[in-house]
TrEMBL record:
Signal peptide: none annotated. The lineage of its organism: Eukaryota, Viridiplantae, Streptophyta, Embryophyta, Tracheophyta. GO terms for molecular function: metal ion binding; oxidoreductase activity. This is Fe2OG dioxygenase domain-containing protein. It comes from Aquilegia coerulea (Rocky mountain columbine). Residues 210-309 form the Fe2OG dioxygenase domain.
C-alpha cells in the first residue's frame, strides 16, 4: 500500500490553545527542589517493590531468515519461550541501520526542543488524533500527573508527519517502514510459535493496513524521582511494541511479580507483547506490564512504535487455539478502534480494559 503523506495543520490565525504545562518547561524553570503535589505518585515508591536484575531474553532476528532449518526452528522456539515466560525481549541483528535509529531519536529531541507555541499546535484533545503532543497520560482525567511529555504520530496505514523539525518527515517515514517490517517478520515467527501458519496473524489481523503509531516519551530530570512516576504500570494496546531509547535507564518490566530493570543496549529493539496478542492467542502470550521511572540527573528519551491490527478488525481468540471443552475463548471480540478509544480516553490502569472483555 502506498502511504499518503499529510502534514500537521499549521494555523495562521491566532487560535487559542491553552498551555498544557509540560514537564520539560517545569524541569527547566529555575530554583525548584520539590515537585508540585499533583505529581506526587507515591511516598514509598521503589522501597516497597521488589526489583531484580535478571537477564532478559535476546532474539537474533537474522536467524528468522536463515536457510538452515534448524536455526529458524531454534529462533521460533526462543520466541515462544520469550513470549510465554516474559512478554519482553531484546532484538539484535534486525537489519535497521543504527544511524537511522539515532537520527530518529535526534528528531524527537529536536521536536521537544521546539518553542512551546509550535508544539502546542499539535496539542489535540481527540485521543485518536493522528498527531498529538501532550503531557502525563490523559491530563483531562489523570488524578496524579506523570513526569512525562509525549508526542504521538500515526504512521500507518496513512503516514502523518510534522512540518518541523526539518527532516522529521523523511526520517520518520524511513524509520516507520523499517520498524514495521521488523514487527511483521517477528509476528510471522510468533505465528509459527503458536502452531499457526507463518502468515496467519498477518492475514487475520490485516497487517498490510496495520495501525502503527510512534510515541516519543520525554522524561526530564526530576528533583524528587523517588515520589514521581514517568509512566505507571500498564500494558500496551496492539500486537507488538518496538521501543528504542537513549542510554538512560528507567524502564522496568514486570516478571513473576518483580520489577526487572531494563539495561538498554545500543542498536537493539526492546519488544513487548501487547493486549491484542494476548486476545488472539487466547491468553497464551500475555501482554506484559511495564513502567518508566524517572531520575534526577539526565533526560530520558524513549520512542515506542506500537503495531496493531487494522483499525476495523474485530479481534477475537483465533479458532485454532480455542477448544470449547478444554480451552474455551477467554475474551469477547471488539474492534481495535473501539478498544483504543476506550483505552486512551480513560486514565491509565494496569490491564483494566482486558479485564472488561474477559469472558
Ligand atoms: O519510556 C519507556 O521506556 C516506556 C514507554 C511506554 O511504555 C509506552 O510508550 O507505552
Ligand atoms: Fe508502554
Amino acid at each position: 500500500m502506498v502511504a499518503t503523506i499529510t502534514q500537521a495543520h499549521v494555523e495562521t490565525d491566532a487560535h487559542f490553545r491553552p498551555k498544557i504545562g509540560c514537564v520539560k518547561d517545569l524541569a527547566e524553570s529555575s530554583d525548584f527542589t520539590s515537585i508540585p503535589s499533583k505529581y506526587s505518585y507515591s511516598t514509598t515508591l521503589n522501597q516497597q517493590d521488589v526489583v531484580a536484575d535478571e537477564q532478559i531474553p535476546i532474539i537474533d532476528f537474522s536467524l528468522l531468515n536463515s536457510n538452515i532449518p534448524d536455526q529458524r526452528a531454534k529462533v521460533i522456539q526462543d520466541l515462544a519461550k520469550a513470549c510465554q515466560d516474559w512478554g519482553f525481549f531484546m532484538v539484535i541483528n534486525h537489519g535497521v541501520p543504527e544511524s537511522l535509529m539515532e537520527r530518529m531519536l535526534d528528531m524527537c529531541t529536536d521536536f521537544f526542543n521546539l518553542a512551546e507555541e509550535e508544539k502546542l499546535q499539535c496539542a489535540e484533545v481527540d485521543v485518536l488524533a493522528p498527531i498529538r503532543f501532550g503531557t502525563s497520560f490523559n491530563p483531562s482525567v489523570d488524578k496524579v500527573f506523570f513526569w512525562r511529555d509525549f508526542l504521538r504520530v500515526r504512521t500507518h496505514p496513512q503516514f502523518h508527519s510534522l512540518p518541523r523539525p526539518a527532516s522529521f518527515s523523511e526520517i520518520s517515514l524511513e524509520y516507520s517502514k523499517r520498524t514495521r517490517h521488523v514487527a511483521r517478520e517477528l509476528l510471522k515467527g510468533i505465528s509459527e510459535s503458536l502452531g499457526l501458519e507463518e502468515c496467519y496473524i498477518d492475514k487475520a489481523m490485516e497487517l498490510e493496513s496495520c495501525y502503527q503509531v510512534l510515541i516519543a516519551n520525554l522524561y526530564p530530570p526530576c528533583p524528587q524521582p523517588e515520589i514521581a512516576m514517568g509512566l505507571p504500570p500498564h500494558s500496551d494496546h496492539g500486537l507488538l511494541t518496538l521501543l528504542i531509547q537513549n542510554q538512560i535507564g528507567g524502564l522496568q518490566v514486570n516478571h513473576n511479580g518483580k520489577w526487572v530493570n531494563v539495561h538498554p543496549l545500543p542498536n537493539t529493539y526492546l519488544v513487548n507483547t501487547a493486549d491484542h496478542l494476548e486476545i488472539l492467542s487466547n491468553g497464551k502470550y500475555k501482554s506484559v506490564l511495564h513502567r518508566a521511572l524517572v531520575n534526577n540527573k539526565a533526560t530520558r528519551l524513549s520512542l515506542a512504535a506500537t503495531h496493531g491490527p487494522c483499525l476495523d478488525n474485530v479481534v477475537t481468540p483465533v479458532t485454532e487455539l480455542v477448544d470449547s471443552e478444554n480451552n474455551p475463548a477467554q475474551y469477547h471480540g471488539m474492534t481495535y478502534k473501539e478498544y483504543m478509544e476506550a483505552l486512551l480516553s480513560n486514565h491509565i490502569h494496569p490491564k483494566s480494559l482486558l479485564d472488561r472483555i474477559r469472558v
